[in-house]
């Protein structure tokens, strides 16, 4: 009987110990599970926050790209309109009425001539106009302005379509319409843009 009691006692103690071990393991598992859950939830929140930050950043970048694209389109539109304006001016220069064309040529030569003895290099299509009286008008205007009126036509013809090239002893002056318009454009493009677009010009 004593032996049986001892065995029962051992079994009871073993069962108690096992129960305690199981309880401890259960508590440990629960704590570990809670820790894992807490860590997981923290990670979820972190990811969520990062996602929100990323979403804001993505939205910001998309907005910036949209603004840049809109600005680019606006600039492209302005450049296109300005280009059309100067193209129209170029066409008008090429098709000036005779009286306005002569006035422009005379004004260009008077302003550019230093000695009044330069040679004029002109397009082939305009040579007859000079020979038919324009050259004489220019020389007369030079004399009236206090300069020598001894301009002559160069033997070679100009490669440009409109305007005049003054060939001097020390320097030349490119008075082609293309060059004149390019210089006007360089100096006044912003002013032209302001006239066309007003407050939109930055």
Backbone CA Rg = 46 Å
Provide the β-strand percentage band. Answer: 5-15%
CATH third-tier fold name of the largest domain: hypothetical protein PF0899 fold
Please state the average pLDDT score. Answer: 76
Distance N terminus to C terminus? 109 Å
**Oligomer state of the chains in this structure:** single chain
- Helix-strand topology string: HHEHEEEH
CATH class value of the largest domain: Alpha Beta
CATH homologous superfamily placement of the largest domain: ATP synthase, E subunit, C-terminal
Which structural class do the helices and strands define? alpha+beta
| Coarse shape | rod-shaped
What is the helix tally? 4
Please describe what this structure looks like.
The chain is of the alpha+beta class. It has two domains: 1-95; 97-196, hypothetical protein PF0899 fold. 73% of the residues lie in helices and 7% in strands. It contains four helices and four strands; from the N terminus they run ααβαβββα. It has helices at 2-94, 98-112, 127-144, 177-197, and strands spanning 119-121, 152-153, 163-167, 172-176. It has a four-stranded mixed sheet with strand order 2-1-3-4. α1 (2-94) packs across α4 and α2 packs across α3. The longest helix is centred in the first third of the chain and has 93 residues, at 2-94. It is rod-shaped and about 105 Å long.
